Amino acid sequence: MIQWLLHIVIDAGILLLAAKMMSKVELKGFKSALIVALIIGVLSFLLSWLLTAVLNIATLGIFYFLGLGFIIRVIVNAIIIELADRLSKDFKTVGFLPSLWLAILLAVVGGIVDAILF
């Protein structure tokens, strides 16, 4: 539970920093960033398995069998970020590419945090 909460706070900080650096990402403030990070976390928990399965079937499992499953996971996270964009009025991404960059950034920083702390 503490690990999950720590990831929410770190993800909120990353989202806020990315919004300041990327012109196509808008975020109102840290409170909004926390809410968006929470939405992304909940949607990931509820939907990532389904979206991953659909994309693996759609690609005939090519990425999975080649050991490139992380590409599917990043695309799934970008889709979830797009859903969070639709659910929050204080968060906006213009197009799919900024969501893809956010997904990559969240995955890389999340991996580093896990390697250091857990």
UniProtKB/TrEMBL annotation:
The chain crosses the membrane at residues 6-22, 34-55, 61-84, 96-117. Keywords: Membrane, Transmembrane, Transmembrane helix. It holds the Pfam family Phage_holin_4_2. This is Phage holin family protein. InterPro entries: Phage_holin_4_2 (IPR007165).
